[in-house]
Design a protein that fits this description.
The chain has about 350 residues and is an alpha/beta fold. It folds into 2 domains: about 210 residues, 3-Layer(aba) Sandwich (Rossmann fold); about 110 residues, Rossmann fold (3-Layer(aba) Sandwich). About 25% of the residues lie in helices and about 20% in strands. The protein is built from 9 helices and 18 strands. It has an 8-stranded mixed sheet, with helices on both faces. Strands 15-16-17-18 form a 4-stranded parallel sheet, sandwiched between helices. It is globular and about 65 Å long.
Length: about 350
Amino acid sequence: MSKVLLISTGGTITMVREDGNGALVPADMETFKAFIPELFAGNIHVDIQAFDPLIDSSDIRPESWRKMAKMVADHYDAYDGFVILHGTDTMSYSASALSFMLENLGKPVIFTGSQLPVGVLRSDAKENLLTAIEIAAEQDEEGNALVPEVCIYFEDKLFRANRTTKRNAEHFSAFNSYNYPALAKAGVHITYQPHLVHYSDPNAPLTLHTEFDTNVAILKLFPGIQPAVVKAILHTRGLRGVVLETFGAGNAPSDKWLYRELKAAVDRGIIIVNKTQCNTGSVEMGLYAVSLNLMKAGVLSGYDITTEALLTKMMLLLGEMPERAKELLGKDICGEMTID
């Protein structure tokens, strides 16, 4: 019998409507389990551990990521896979963070949640959770996990976690992976794409990384942006890294003042990484003349990485190995970006 550990952090999926006023409130685990009896009726043994108290995903912090990752690491040998229930608003951040924290991961860690609470008649909670459990337990004929990486399962698709972005607050298909195909699709059968899966070294042990430096910022360029805005961000006390969200293929205004501010920041030791504002496509610095100043200023290319993955990767590298952060931000660590 396969064994899966279900880790509940909170989110819409764990909520029920309160008697009387109909307001949504977190459900205790016994109430939650009563809504999904199928969870314990199949051929997969499921144990549950829950955050106490449960957390709205808007309140997720790096300490929450540490707690999730440690729960996986502490129970790693006892289970075949892990499913993490999480609110959708920051799920891509948390799942991306864990993809970098759990080095040499050899078992599935599947994030899922729902757009409607588990107690609502049309809720998508049951299908998302039960399919995530099945994926987390799935193994090949030799007993190896089919998808040994951190993923998000939602609606009917399994995505690599550090490729995802929440795209919709209304529809059940809340997430998308714009620059990398789905690792699996669920219908009557679950169809896996093993050639797309990232496999770690099977002989390397799981290594847990937990140190984050949150002295980072996102600077989103826009037409007419003022020097005072850029200066305020780049001169933030203690700042160590910046996600620079640019236009198109990594372009920025050609104003001399912007070049001077970016170069001065890089010269002060601040790492700046170029991330396109487009969901689909990659940064191609030097393709247009308006990106040459960024190159001359020492700005790094983020290629096709998501903002969620870039930010969490930057925070972890600055916290764990600051002397190598600049080097590793330009490299693909666990499938988070495509480098030509």
